[in-house]
Structures are given as structure tokens and as C-alpha cells.
């Protein structure tokens, strides 16, 4: 089915697989299936729409609306929300059910959802099991990190995002198990690598692109298992070290070396996409995925589409950001790990059969709810049988 986007007018296609998916995720109430209509916006505009709900790395000072204490938050003080410092929010001193209200059939749902969103407390940030890392967001298990975002199990990392199991790194992005690295992008298992991209298992490699199992290389591209290479030329150890000393003597000589390296990078043929051990996939940075279309940054995904950041075992999910660890049949949302969760965000840990809800975990069969931690059969935070 060919369509024109109602937001940007770009043509886009809704495939038979898509239609089958919308049918499959359509919820059933009292024995009647409520069909999810095909989208009216193109995948890019849907992604934009999804991201309007996610502020990764803008932090503000504001007061906690429970204790009055000054806190760091992803919500600026002028936002019309009730914001609790995250540990207070996760505590038991308040009850989201107190904000329950009847559904008013004379008013549109989204108006009522918006009203609820303005009164139910929401958490200031999303940093879990972390220590001394106040200035960050969407982090898990991080210690002594400053301005680190969307990262997992890191220590002493700063000014970076999407780091996993890294320590002592700065100005890095999308790196896994790296140490003492600076300005490194899309790399894994590296030690003391600077200003480089797409390195795997490298040590002392600078200004290099797409190198694997290399040591002591500078300004190189496409090398495998090499040592003492300067701009892709092999050298003896002494010669390499002597030349390197000159190259990194001053700030301006480093800049010149960078330009020379970039020239080499540009000449290097590169993969059209990083689809490793994948079958029937389109997108980039996918590992061991099957039948994923227009997906980015995913692992072990299956039958997913139009999604980004699907870190582990997402199945049959469309239009997601940050879905994984058993996410299945989810549509339009972010930070989802449950099943049949539609048009929702920050539903974790777990949440099944969740519709139009936010900031809820361990919930089932909820519609238009906010701030629940363990609930079932609720609409606009009101409990039903
Ligand atoms: Zn569009």
C-alpha cells in the first residue's frame, strides 16, 4: 500500500508484513478486536514523534515537588509536570492510584491523558543502581560518571553516551568494553585508543578507522592484526616511535596528522551496512538478527521494523526505541520490555497489554495510566474489575 506522509508529504509504503503486524497487535476487549489502523506518517516522522517523549541529555536544576530539595532533572522547572527526585519516586510514600479519575466520554481521550500527565508525579531522571553519577540519564549500574548518558555498567566515564562495560573513557560514543579511550566511536574491546572509529580489539591505535586486532598504529584504515603501521605503511618499532613523536608534538601537528588520516579514511572502501550474522535484514549495526527491516543498533532481534536501539531479543516489534529483553508484539514506544505494549513509553521493568501509558512497571491490562508500579485493569489510574 503506497501512502503519502501527512506530516512531510514523503511517499512511503505499508507492506503486507506491516498490515499483518497491525492486525496481530490489535488489542481484544470483551472478545472484540479493536483494529490498529495503518500509520498516516512515514517511518522518519514516526521516529521524530517518538523522540519528542525522550530527553536523553539535557539536564536542569529544579526542585523536587515532594521534598522541595534542589535536584538534577531532565525536566526544566517551567514544565507543567509534578517531578519527584527519582529515589523518592520509586519509594512508597505516594500512591499513583490517588490520582484516579473516571473516563469522561464527552471529552477526547488525549485531553484527559494530558490532564493526568500534569498531576501524577514523574521521576526526575532514569539512573538505576548507580553511584556518584548524578549528572546523567538513562544509565544503569554506573559509578563515578559525569555527563554520561544511555549507558550500562560503566565506571569513571565522562561526556559520553551509549557506553557498555567501559571504564576511564571520555568523549566516546557507542563503545563496548573499552578502557582509557578518548574520542572513540563504534568500537569494542579497545585499550588506549584515541580519535578513531570502528576498532575492535585494538591497543594504542590512534586516528584510525576500521581496524581489528591491531596494536601501535596511527592514521590507518582497514588493517587486520598489524603493529607499527603509520598511515598504512609498515615500519620497524624504532622508526615508528620516532615518527610518531614528531606527529604528536604540538596541537597543530596533531591537527595535520588528523587531516592526513581523514584523507586515507575517505579512500577506504567501507561496508554499506554493518549486518553481522544477519538474515533478511535492512538497517545498520545489527548482530544476529533475522527479518528486521529498517532497524538500527540491534542484537538477536527477529521480525522487527522501523526501530532503533533494540539491544536484546526483541521479537515482532515495530516503531520502537529501546526495546528488548523479551519485548514482543510492541508498537510505537520507547523503553519497553514487555509484550503487547502499544503507544506507550518507559514501561519497565515489564508490562504486558499496556496501552497509552507511561512511567509504569510490572503492570498488566492498563490503559491511559501513569506512574503505576504493580497494577492491573486500570483506566486513567482508576481500578476496575
Ligand atoms: Zn514524514
What can be said about this structure in brief?
This protein is of the alpha/beta class and 385 residues long.
Features:
385 residues; alpha/beta; seven-stranded parallel sheet; globular; binds zinc ion
Description:
With 385 residues, the protein is of the alpha/beta class. Among the domains are: 2-51, no CATH class; 203-269, no CATH class; 275-383. Helices cover 16% and strands 35% of the residues. It is built from 6 helices and 33 strands. The strands form 8 sheets. Strands 22, 23, 24, 25, 26, 27, 28, 29, 30, 31, 32 and 33 form a 12-stranded mixed sheet that branches. It has a 7-stranded parallel sheet with strand order 10-12-13-14-15-16-18, with no helix packed on it. A 4-stranded mixed sheet has the order 17-19-20-21, with helices on one face. Strand 5 and strand 6 form a beta hairpin. The longest helix is centred in the last third of the chain and has 17 residues, at 251-267. The structure holds zinc ion. The site of zinc ion has 8 residues, from helix 2. Zinc ion is lined by residues 5, 7-8, 10, 41-42, 44-45.
* Mean pLDDT over the residues: 96
Radius of gyration: 24 Å
Could you give the count of β-strands? 33
Distance linking N and C termini: 40 Å
Q: What is the overall shape?
A: globular
Count of separate DSSP helical elements: 6
Helix content range: 10-25%
Low-confidence stretches: none
Quickly give the structural class: alpha/beta
Ligand set: zinc ion
Biggest sheet: strands, sense, closure? 12 strands, mixed
Strand content: 25-35%
Amino acid at each position: 500500500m503506497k501512502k503519502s506522509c501527512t506530516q512531510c508529504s514523503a511517499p512511503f509504503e505499508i507492506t503486507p508484513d506491516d498490515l499483518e503486524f497491525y492486525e496481530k497487535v490489535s488489542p481484544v476487549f470483551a472478545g472484540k478486536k479493536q483494529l490498529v489502523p495503518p500509520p498516516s506518517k512515514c517511518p522518519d516522522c514516526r521516529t521524530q514523534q517518538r523522540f519528542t517523549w525522550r530527553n536523553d541529555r539535557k539536564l536542569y536544576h529544579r526542585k523536587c515537588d515532594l521534598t522541595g530539595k534542589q535536584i538534577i532533572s531532565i525536566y526544566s522547572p517551567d514544565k507543567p509536570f509534578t517531578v519527584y527526585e527519582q529515589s523518592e519516586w520509586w519509594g512508597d510514600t505516594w500512591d499513583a492510584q490517588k490520582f484516579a479519575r473516571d473516563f469522561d466520554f464527552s471529552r477526547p481521550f488525549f485531553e484527559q491523558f494530558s490532564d493526568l500527565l500534569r498531576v501524577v508525579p514523574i521521576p526526575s531522571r532514569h539512573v538505576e543502581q548507580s553511584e556518584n553519577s548524578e549528572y546523567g540519564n538513562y544509565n544503569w549500574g554506573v559509578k563515578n560518571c559525569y555527563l554520561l548518558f544511555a549507558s550500562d555498567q560503566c565506571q569513571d566515564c565522562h561526556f559520553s553516551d551509549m557506553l557498555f562495560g567501559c571504564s576511564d573513557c571520555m568523549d566516546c560514543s557507542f563503545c563496548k568494553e573499552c578502557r582509557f579511550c578518548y574520542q572513540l566511536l563504534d568500537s569494542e574491546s579497545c585499550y588506549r585508543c584515541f580519535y578513531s572509529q570502528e576498532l575492535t580489539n585494538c591497543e594504542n591505535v590512534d586516528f584510525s578507522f576500521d581496524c581489528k586486532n591491531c596494536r601501535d598504529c596511527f592514521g590507518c584504515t582497514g588493517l587486520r592484526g598489524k603493529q607499527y603501521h603509520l598511515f598504512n605503511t609498515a615500519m620497524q618499532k624504532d622508526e615508528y616511535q620516532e615518527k610518531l613523536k614528531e606527529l604528536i608534538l604540538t596541537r597543530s601537528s596533531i591537527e595535520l596528522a588528523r587531516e592526513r588520516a581523514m584523507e586515507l579514511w575517505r579512500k577506504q572502501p567501507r561496508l554499506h551496512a554493518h549486518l553481522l550474522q544477519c538474515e533478511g535484514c535492512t538497517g545498520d549495526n545489527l548482530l544476529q538478527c533475522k527479518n528486521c527491516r529498517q532497524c538500527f543498533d540491534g542484537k538477536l532481534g527477529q521480525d522487527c521494523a522501523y526501530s532503533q536501539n533494540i539491544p536484546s531479543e526483541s521479537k515482532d516489534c515495530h516503531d520502537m526505541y529501546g526495546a528488548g529483553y523479551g519485548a514482543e508484539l510492541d508498537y510505537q514506544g520507547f523503553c519497553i520490555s514487555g509484550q503487547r505494549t502499544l503507544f506507550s513509553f518507559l514501561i519497565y521493568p515489564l508490562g504486558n497489554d499496556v496501552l497509552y501509558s507511561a512511567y509504569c512497571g510490572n503492570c498488566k491490562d492498563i490503559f491511559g495510566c501513569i506512574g503505576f508500579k504493580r497494577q492491573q485493569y486500570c483506566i486513567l489510574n482508576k481500578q476496575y474489575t
